């Protein structure tokens, strides 16, 4: 065999060997179909949702490794202002429909909001109830230091509805931007009473005494949740919303004192 033919045969054998190895190699595997959510999102939620949403987020992260749920809590109106100004939010949960409507009107809501819970007001007083509060009308007694939410905050709007229903006008010593701030005034001893949600009284434990009143039924707050249109991870945002509105999320909310939607 000539030298040229020997070289040609060697090349053919080498190519066959390489192709054989390639044929034995495992082909690249595509990502599994139906792989779980991944990445990070930031959830903007009403201050009254802090306890249950923290629990839901922790459970979601444990169930879906590789995800991270950031949480930011404040009064719903403040959150709308922040999102409208470009704050990087992926999900918004409001303590009332009106603030969600403001975001929808600005074109910043992705899809239709879902109502996932309800809440009502209660009176929170220090454990020893120094002003002897027993009814809603007692809050209007001269000298009683009562704290409420500002009118633009959902708990403030609910307070106004209750005032109208009870035909009682309150003279608060302070109007706060979130329900947790109202509760803080009571637990610190700066107020004799504060109007907060039933869920806040439950979460506070023995730090306050809760007083229910019949007029609260005239102002039931519905809580809607929706994705934010500017979200960079809508798949994860929608997965978290499903966790909130699904059976596990609703159980956490019910345990925290929230009513059914």
From TrEMBL:
Pfam families, sorted: SBP_bac_11 (PF13531)
Keywords noted in UniProt: Metal-binding, Signal
Keyword ATP-binding assigned: no
Family annotation (Gene3D superfamilies): Periplasmic binding protein-like II (3.40.190.10)
Domain of life the protein comes from: Bacteria
Signal sequence extent: 1-30
Entry keyword Nucleotidyltransferase: no
NCBIfam families from the UniProt entry: modA
UniProt record similarity statement: Belongs to the bacterial solute-binding protein ModA family.
Name of the featured protein: Molybdate transport system substrate-binding protein
Originating species: Paeniglutamicibacter sulfureus
Lineage: Bacteria, Bacillati, Actinomycetota, Actinomycetes, Micrococcales
């Amino acid at each position: 065999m000539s030298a040229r033919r020997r070289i040609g045969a060697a090349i053919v054998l080498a190519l066959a060997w390489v192709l054989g190895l390639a044929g034995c190699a495992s082909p690249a595997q595509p990502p599994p179909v139906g792989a779980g959510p991944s990445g990070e999102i930031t959830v903007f939620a009403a201050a009254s949702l802090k306890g249950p949403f923290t629990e839901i987020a922790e459970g979601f992260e444990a169930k879906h490794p590789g995800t991270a749920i950031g949480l930011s809590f404040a009064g719903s109106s403040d959150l709308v202002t922040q999102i409208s100004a470009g704050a990087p939010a992926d999900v918004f949960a409001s303590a009332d429909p009106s603030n969600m409507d403001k975001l929808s009107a600005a074109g910043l809501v992705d899809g239709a909001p879902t109502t996932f819970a309800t809440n009502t007001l209660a009176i929170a007083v220090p454990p020893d109830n120094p002003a002897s509060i027993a009814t809603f009308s007692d809050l209007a007694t001269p000298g009683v230091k009562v704290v409420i939410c500002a009118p633009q905050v959902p708990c403030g709007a609910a307070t106004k509805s209750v005032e109208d229903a009870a035909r009682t006008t309150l003279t608060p010593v302070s109007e706060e931007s979130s329900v947790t701030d109202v509760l803080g005034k009571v637990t610190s001893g700066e107020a004799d009473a504060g109007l907060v949600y039933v869920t806040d009284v439950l979460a506070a434990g023995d730090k306050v005494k809760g007083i229910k009143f019949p007029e609260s039924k005239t102002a039931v707050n519905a809580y809607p949740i929706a994705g934010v249109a500017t979200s960079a991870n809508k798949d994860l945002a929608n997965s978290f919303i499903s966790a909130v509105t699904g059976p596990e999320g609703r159980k956490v909310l019910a345990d925290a004192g929230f009513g059914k939607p």
